[in-house]
Amino acid sequence: MIKINEVKKYDGETVEIRGFVKQVRDLKKMQFLVIRDITESVQVTVFKNEENKALNEKIAALTLESSVKVKGKVHVDDFVKLNGVELLAEEVTVANLANNNMPIDLTDFNESNRDLRMDWRFLDLRSREHQLIFRVQTTAEMAMREFWIENGFTEIHSPKLMGNPSESGAELFELNYFGGKAYLAQSPQFYKQMGIAAGFERVFEIGPVFRANKSFTSRHDTEFTSVDCEIAWIDSYEDIMKFEERWIEYLVKRVKEKHGDEIKEVLGREITVPKVPFPRVTMEEAKEIIKSLNYTVPPETKGDLDPTAEKLLGKYFKEKYDSDFVFVTEFPTSIRPFYHMYKEGDPTKTLSFDLLWNGLEVTTGAQREHRFPVIVKQGIEKGLIPANAIDANGEVVRENLPQGLKDYLSCFDYGCPPHGGYGFGLTRMLMNLLGYTNVREVTFIYRGVDRLRP
Amino acid sequence: MIKINEVKKYDGETVEIRGFVKQVRDLKKMQFLVIRDITESVQVTVFKNEENKALNEKIAALTLESSVKVKGKVHVDDFVKLNGVELLAEEVTVANLANNNMPIDLTDFNESNRDLRMDWRFLDLRSREHQLIFRVQTTAEMAMREFWIENGFTEIHSPKLMGNPSESGAELFELNYFGGKAYLAQSPQFYKQMGIAAGFERVFEIGPVFRANKSFTSRHDTEFTSVDCEIAWIDSYEDIMKFEERWIEYLVKRVKEKHGDEIKEVLGREITVPKVPFPRVTMEEAKEIIKSLNYTVPPETKGDLDPTAEKLLGKYFKEKYDSDFVFVTEFPTSIRPFYHMYKEGDPTKTLSFDLLWNGLEVTTGAQREHRFPVIVKQGIEKGLIPANAIDANGEVVRENLPQGLKDYLSCFDYGCPPHGGYGFGLTRMLMNLLGYTNVREVTFIYRGVDRLRP
Questions:
Q1: How much is the ipTM here?
Q2: Closest approach of chain B CAs to the CA of A284, in angstroms?
Q3: Whose CB among A357, B55, B59, B148 lies 3.0–4.6 Å from B153's, allowing a Cys bridge?
Q4: What pTM was estimated for this model as a whole?
Q5: β-pairing, B67-76 with B14-26?
């Protein structure tokens, strides 16, 4: 039993392959099949004659997408269009005959038929193009973990069921929990910081998160795979950016090594390993650049960048510094969560960053506030903690901390070291790397407002 | 900045370490600290004198579990009890001063205080014993993935939100989904098979699953990390067992290499790499053995083994074959799901297995039924599919398939190849490997009927 991409090595020998029937051509004197497994496709050739009668009949009855085993002699021949090799079949075993009534066209990946394709996702995924996405994902995730573990990280699996709403309370899924209420985690943020408070020093997690977001855009989903890490004993959020850029460099390098040729062949896309360091630009500088490009960020963003500004910025750094990546730093406090550390001497800015990749945000990161009275104060300023949680001397009044944040805040009451980290969207990485623009295409089984199946 | 387990290499040199304060002894002429990071502990020594006055005061004010940086000269000396090395402190920087009012005793891991320890899990995890569990988990998971990827597997992230109840409908968490209903996945079973139907050939997933189980035992939780894989083109479920035993051999080997000495030192436990193949025994044979040991499985198990029988069987195979593992095969159809393949010629038996490790079940595996009419028939027999879904000629009447199973069953209508797989409990693996008996101890943040926090 060999993989189809190995067939060519066995010229003249009898081998056995397995796969799906992708083409059947039944001619007067010959029959041709195309069989595909996870690696490649190969032509199977059968002469029509008395000796082959049973085999000829079996092939005539084959339907597309049936799974078969084929035993045959390898014949390397440049005249064969498909990779210059064919298998002269001696035996075909039908493992599972497919329904002849195919509900979707397996070669048509248009947007117009996307919803139908998602209904029949297991058939939609049978193409080489689509399988490649998930083989690349496998390599990329493994590379992330290799780099983390090489650098002393511990893997965690944080709970997805929570007794209290996490960060904002908005876009939360709520469920009945033995008569009480539970919530689905929107991010592992609090728990990865708990890992730091537990002395794990460096933690990572790749796992699902849930957002009850009513958007129907090409970028939104209600469940996705979040890639997160957190690092203790940093001196500055610069340490986080330094780590992340090397981590990205490593994962893109591994993807290129393992799939670069195939990505070029199948998707016509060149994978470029990024140069580190990535350029950094403060939000203030970024806005100057955007202004100089004659664009004004609309006021609704409240100090954030909008997608157009992100795209312009991405283009600017590509043209000027030949970089697909740029860190935008020092986001305004007003649009960052209370647990980001504020800039010393300028509490309107946070020690945080977004990473843009081809002008699309892929990461949010920051140094976290680890000083107990300071994080409580920031929570009060954001209206998440009652004002009486700090007394006149600036001391935390522990019994006045809100129930929902008590466990989280207590982490900082017992010597939690300085730390920071970032979150990374797995699908955004794939979209950037492979040139897809809709999250549905790069998610194994997509979940959205109106999609809970298959 | 070095790790504490490297300190000894730097005799006579000045180094900087970081960690938590685990002990403070303030004597007349000397001060001693014990500082611990993720790797080790080290003694820090300071002489009390005029020159050190500021430092002496700082140390006198230190609380346990504060996080500090210490700069000092390494002094290797066999007289120092703790690893024969001390750091003569020159500088101590307090990164975060801990509340002096410690809510739990960080060295007392008794069952009696478990609930309180779980309330303060981030403190409970600061011990070397507990951190070791998760460093072992990290290595074990990485080894699993290495072995899978080496063998051509693709990683998937299957959805945890489902539009229809999965397998049984029992123990399901239900949530409000934009006015409709959704359910939390109890296992990735259907989706990993969808990966096979999608032509991925070999898939794996490590991710959370959810069970609304009201049990309060030492083995039960409402959320845990499930380890799953599925393999296409198998000839028999024997192929699955053959794969799994080599996979376990590999992961135990990696754990022993990386942590064997520390596990022995900290937990007093010898890690033994298992010999493959593991013994196999059919359920019928297993029951004969149990009978010969003068035990009768109570009828409530309906043909399954109860924990006592599993323990006896584990002991028997340990004594007779020196194996910690045994596969019990051919489980009765009556206690297996409808998608397990039945034994040819004996439909009362399934081509399935459980793996016992030290007499505790860690895996359920099986060859799956991939033949469309057969799986529908089995579903009808189990009462999950209406009888009119098969007509008088034995053909599937597709429009009569139940809505909730239609997407799953359709996978077998389009050439899904023969396949099988297994599921593996991550916590059960850790309990067996490290000798813990309560799932709460080996879960990062435990979730149970009455525990949704922290």
A1: 0.95
A2: 30
A3: B148
A4: 0.95
A5: antiparallel
